Amino acid sequence: MASPVWGDLPHLNALDKIPRPFLIGVAGGTASGKSTVCSKIMEQLGQTSLLENNRMVTIISQDSFYRDLTLEEHKRATKGEYNFDHPDAFDTELMLKTLLDVKAGKRVELPAYDYVAHKRSPTSTAIIHCSDVVLFEGILVFYFPEIRDLFNMRLFVDTDPDIRLSRRVLRDIEERGRELDQILSQYVQLVKPAFEEFCLPTKKYADVIIPRGADNVVAIDLIVQHIQELLRPNRTSRRSRNNSDSIVERPH
Ligand SMILES: Nc1ncnc2c1ncn2[C@@H]1O[C@H](COP(=O)(O)OP(=O)(O)O)[C@@H](O)[C@H]1O
Ligand SMILES: Nc1ccn([C@@H]2O[C@H](COP(=O)(O)O)[C@@H](O)[C@H]2O)c(=O)n1
């Protein structure tokens, strides 16, 4: 019989059998603050005395799973004309296999994504060991049903589109080697329509929607408290208590 630790617990219903790693999906539009929210959650979970030193929190980015581009696609990418916001841009099979390995407690090695070269970095990798909590963040982490179903908790970072665009412009110029006119044309022609078609409709799958992203310290504190409570050793069944779903904001 399978161990209850790795049991088949696709979501928050089996509250008295919390699987490790506890897999959290973090979706949201480009530059909504997904990575920043994950870093804050990781920071706050790492600091708590409830988690032992040898337990870990890991962040994986969906961007590590961008497909390799053909020569022609790469040419378009350098002109800001390749659609990186479409589900087809991702290697879904590899993404699913990796997450299943992570869930099974296997060690995985992931390349960092190089946004300047539009491909996975051949030199920089992240080793993902078996962790207590794994945060998987990206624009389309709730889009693919097989992947969506793996999460034990789903968060959607909901930041105003104008703020996202202004942050993306600064970030893409400073960190991703892009020119302003290309950032804007890519955004208008590809990023924004794909957000509306593929990312925004996945908000309904979230357990918690985080308005204003990392600025929302209250939401982040509540999420961290909730995770700590779920992962507390020897916790009593939440079904026997009354405060079980107090922080879970379920969208309509
Ligand atoms: N609350 C915030 N206030 C100011 N800048 C922020 C905030 N959250 C994120 N940023 C900045 O916006 C950019 C995108 O944030 P990031 O967390 O990487 O978003 P995402 O992972 O959703 O693309 C980064 O340059 C980041 O430093
Ligand atoms: N070579 C690439 C790969 C991706 N993008 C853009 O990145 C966005 C996703 O990353 P976030 O950190 O913003 O969530 C996505 O909107 C792609 O357009 C890119 O420009 N170039």
TrEMBL record:
<keyword id="KW-0067">ATP-binding</keyword>
<dbReference type="Pfam" id="PF00485">
    <property type="entry name" value="PRK"/>
</dbReference>
<keyword id="KW-0808">Transferase</keyword>
<dbReference type="InterPro" id="IPR027417">
    <property type="entry name" value="P-loop_NTPase"/>
</dbReference>
<feature type="domain" description="Phosphoribulokinase/uridine kinase">
    <location>
        <begin position="23"/>
        <end position="218"/>
    </location>
</feature>
<dbReference type="InterPro" id="IPR000764">
    <property type="entry name" value="Uridine_kinase-like"/>
</dbReference>
<comment type="pathway">
    <text>Pyrimidine metabolism; CTP biosynthesis via salvage pathway; CTP from cytidine: step 1/3.</text>
</comment>
<dbReference type="GO" id="GO:0005524">
    <property type="term" value="F:ATP binding"/>
</dbReference>
<keyword id="KW-0418">Kinase</keyword>
<dbReference type="InterPro" id="IPR006083">
    <property type="entry name" value="PRK/URK"/>
</dbReference>
<comment type="pathway">
    <text>Pyrimidine metabolism; UMP biosynthesis via salvage pathway; UMP from uridine: step 1/1.</text>
</comment>
<protein>
    <recommendedName>
        <fullName>Uridine kinase</fullName>
        <ecNumber>2.7.1.48</ecNumber>
    </recommendedName>
</protein>
<comment type="similarity">
    <text>Belongs to the uridine kinase family.</text>
</comment>
<keyword id="KW-0547">Nucleotide-binding</keyword>
<dbReference type="GO" id="GO:0004849">
    <property type="term" value="F:uridine kinase activity"/>
</dbReference>
